[in-house]
Amino acid sequence: EVQLVESGGGLVQPGGSLRLSCAASGFTFDAYAMSWVRQAPGKGLEWVSVINRAGSTWLSDSVKGRFIISRDNAKNTLYLQMNSLKPEDTAVYYCVLIETSLRGQGTQVTVSS
Fold this sequence. Notes:
Blueprint: E1 3-7, E2 10-12, E3 18-25, E4 34-39, E5 45-51, E6 57-59, E7 67-72, E8 77-82, E9 91-97, E10 102-103, E11 107-111
Parallel strand pairs: 2-11
Antiparallel strand pairs: 1-3, 3-8, 4-5, 4-9, 5-6, 7-8, 9-10, 9-11
């Protein structure tokens, strides 16, 4: 069974940092591209970042220069390092197995003073 379990969210002040993790199981993690998406209150899903099998990355313009996506294939884990957080980054963040569009339960990130 494919499982994706996000963690690392929380409440942080503007300008702060968080690192999200996504533990993957049930599939050959290093064979697939992965992504992070988010959903702000009352809004639709927004693509945040993608990393392919080779480690090449893509970031949305809204987070470019502030967020970094990475993966540790030995640990079957996807990461999202989020720096210089803004209130508009407040959302539930999900990791996604792109091949199947499967996502985890999400982790809440709230940026507020």
